[in-house]
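The protein record quoted for completeness.
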Amino acid sequence: MKPSCSFPLAAIVAIFVGPLTGFAQETIASKPATIWYSEQFTVHSNAVGRDFLIQVARPVKPQTGKVPVIYVLDGNTLFGEVADMVTSFGYFGDTAPAYVVGIGYPTEEFGQWLSLRNRDLVHAHIPDDIKLAAGSGEGAKFEKFLLEELRPLIEHRYPVDAHRSLLAGHSFGGLFTLHMLLADPGAFAGYLICSPSIWAEPQLLEQASAFHAPAPLKVFIGVGSKEEAQFGESLRMVKNAEDLAVSLRGHASGADVSFIEFEGQTHGTVIPAFFSQALQFVLPLPAASSH
């Protein structure tokens, strides 16, 4: 004879199913996630002939006067990470407060993002059979958009200090940032160059050996120690970054250059480590005034 159970089956169902059903109902409705203290809008570029997604994060604490601004390339992938760091660092007093401007594309397709950023972030045309850079070569148009269209818009719309503008990029974005440093060093007060793909424009190393900045500026260069093992020694990801730092430091360039090879990091994992250090370097807290 089977043992009887006086505990009603309905009660058991209510215990295990009821709460789950209520929980599921609460999470059915959803909406896109947002980043605190930020907004986004689309800008059409006449220079490039396409639209760009612009994301802007402001300091948490109200500011009096104008503050620095960091323009971050590859905004689709990097804006959230950098904005979170700058917001947190500024709030806790680890760095000076700053605005963050992410420059990306109004697309949710990874492949389309990859194609567009290859086109915009490399000045030289690389043969299309090199899949890492297919469609490249329109960096000059993107540069015109950045300097002549986007920056005036941001400086008109937000209380940012044009003389404390910074440019940051990773990979091809790092290459573009380096290109800007060498071609027009006075355009920004600081350059954050992460894992630059110098293999795509190796002539930049020679240009760096003769570099001279017209005014003091900060340059932070970083690379992951595992990047050559990751991509092969022929791309010289680590060696090129090292050579770049040596060249910029060794020619009385007027630039304050910092270089870190991040031990144990790859092309992807180096990003948070890089920005954590670079932001503290280029956004120092104002010196305490003496009385």
User: Anything to note?
Assistant: Confidence is low (pLDDT under 50) at residues 1-7, 9-17. The chain has one domain: 36-282.
